[in-house]
Amino acid sequence: MDDLRTTHLTRRPANALVRLAGQVPLLLGLAGMVIVFVVFGGLRIDLAMIGYLVLVGFVAMLPQPVVTVTRTLEVPVPAPVQPVIEQDMLPAFVEALGDPGLVLDGRGAVLHRNGAAARQYPSLQLGRVMTLVMRNPDLVAAIEGSQRTGEPRSFELHETVPSETWDRVVVAPIRRPDRDWFADENRQMLVTFQSLTELKRVDALRTDFIANASHEMRTPLASLVGFIDTLLGPAARDAAAREKFLGIMRSQAERMSRLIDDLLSLSRIEMHQHVRPTGSVDLTALLREVREGLQTQAKAAAIDVILTMPKAPVTVSGDRSQLYEVFENLIDNAIKYGADGKTVEVELVDIDRSGLKHMVSVTDHGPGVEPEHVPRMTERFYRIDAEASRKKKGTGLGLAIVKHIIQRHRGQMSIRSRPGEGLRVEVLLP
């Protein structure tokens, strides 16, 4: 389609010679006048020539008008260009995805896979039919449904081998503006995987936390209600039974109080976990204070807490009350569960490891734990022996609190243990 466009052309004044050429009639008229003055007026020829040249110069200097010429031109206007993704750009687009992504042909065979897909699904080689490699009914239904309708399909993929994972899988046809999807012999589909594993694990942790907290609270409450009913009924006048039951009730109430205190402490720590503490703490003085505070428990368990640390102060940035809670929990656990070893060693040393400068280790010589329990010991309410933990007045939250406090201080924590060799906890601080 052509567009009529108006163009304005402006003609500028030409140079002197060109302007004289445009004034030939005027110059001829002046020359005739000069000849008349010479023939009939007796004017000298030399003066007549000088005068004529002056008149010619005057004519050459006269201003010329600016002439504007308007012309209408027919200018062809190109048709609008439809945005089309080039075929060789599709692999680059899939490669730029952060999640695993694959391009399938009409048969469901893999035409291209990005690096994330190659790492997560190494068996999905180029040219292999995806549904023959991943024999999942939901995946087969999504691919066939997308091929049949030309519309995207999505589902949640749950796999248990080699580890339990969840993914949101989306199968979408790759449509080109100039082609009909159903008539295209080279039609393709894009398959993407978005990991839901971490969200599922967080949701499971929250569910387990509520269930465990409810269970921990329900048990002592049930005991309290039972003993109160007994004291109001059969044991109303039995002084010995009343004294015994009141002692048990007090113990159960203290258990609930410790649990509530730990839950509140954990909540406060998580609320401020992103804020790094700015206080100044002397670790040597803090560790001495923690040991003194636990002397009663240590003597009752016949445990000797041995401190090994520099004589000079060792200062770190941190929240003093929270660091006190860390080492109180660790040393208290070592006293409770490492009583067979008779000693608990607490050592403070300097290190140089990726910005971490100080390490405090707490080592007991008790029975130790099996290796499969070690990674889970910092989970909330996780107990290796639930009954033994309750007898020792544990809430199952101590190491979880320790882990979150150390994370707030931008430190690291490691636990090492083998059956019969005791347990060692290392706290690394910047």
UniProtKB/TrEMBL annotation:
Keyword field: ATP-binding, Cell membrane, Kinase, Membrane, Nucleotide-binding, Phosphoprotein, Transferase, Transmembrane, Transmembrane helix, Two-component regulatory system
Localisation: Cell membrane
One Pfam family from the record: HATPase_c
GO cellular component: plasma membrane
The keyword Phosphoprotein appears for this protein: yes
An example Gene Ontology biological process: cellular response to phosphate starvation
Protein name per its UniProtKB record: histidine kinase
Highest taxon, organism lineage: Bacteria
GO molecular function: ATP binding; phosphoprotein phosphatase activity; phosphorelay sensor kinase activity
SUPFAM superfamilies, alphabetized: ATPase domain of HSP90 chaperone/DNA topoisomerase II/histidine kinase, Homodimeric domain of signal transducing histidine kinase
Chief place where the protein resides: membrane
Residues annotated as domain Histidine kinase: 212-430
InterPro entries: BphY/WalK/GraS-like, HATPase_C_sf, HATPase_dom, His_kinase_dom, HisK_dim/P_dom, HisK_dim/P_sf, Sig_transdc_His_kin-like_C
Biological source species: Devosia subaequoris
Catalytic activity: ATP + protein L-histidine = ADP + protein N-phospho-L-histidine
Transmembrane segments: 20-40, 47-66
Enzyme class, spelled out: transferase
Keyword match Cell membrane: yes
EC number: 2.7.13.3
Signal peptide limits: none
